[in-house]
Design a protein that fits this description.
- The protein has one domain.
- The chain is about 40% helix and about 0% strand.
- It is built from 2 helices and no strands.
Length: about 70
C-alpha cells in the first residue's frame, strides 16, 4: 500500500518491527536500516518539482497546506 508501489520484504519487516517497539534506541536503529534500504534501492528520484499555489477564502477549513506535490 505504499504510494510508489515499492515492494521490499526486508524493508516491510523493519517497518513492522518499528511499529511494535517503543524503545528509542531500537527505533533509531530500525529507522537507520530502513533509510539505508530506501537509499540503496533508489526508490524514487524526483527530476523536478512543480510549484503549488493554493488560494481560498479564509473562512474555508480543512485544506492541507503542505500536501505532497506529484511530479
Amino acid at each position: 500500500d505504499y504510494y510508489f508501489n515499492y515492494d521490499n520484504p526486508t524493508f516491510d519487516k523493519i517497518i513492522a518491527d518499528l511499529n511494535l517497539t517503543s524503545d528509542e534506541a531500537k527505533r533509531m536503529t530500525l529507522l537507520g536500516e530502513a533509510q539505508k534500504i530506501l537509499a540503496d534501492d533508489a526508490v524514487v528520484g524526483f527530476l523536478y518539482e512543480l510549484p503549488k499555489v493554493g488560494v481560498w477564502d479564509a473562512k474555508l477549513e480543512g485544506f492541507w497546506e503542505n500536501a505532497p506535490i506529484q511530479a
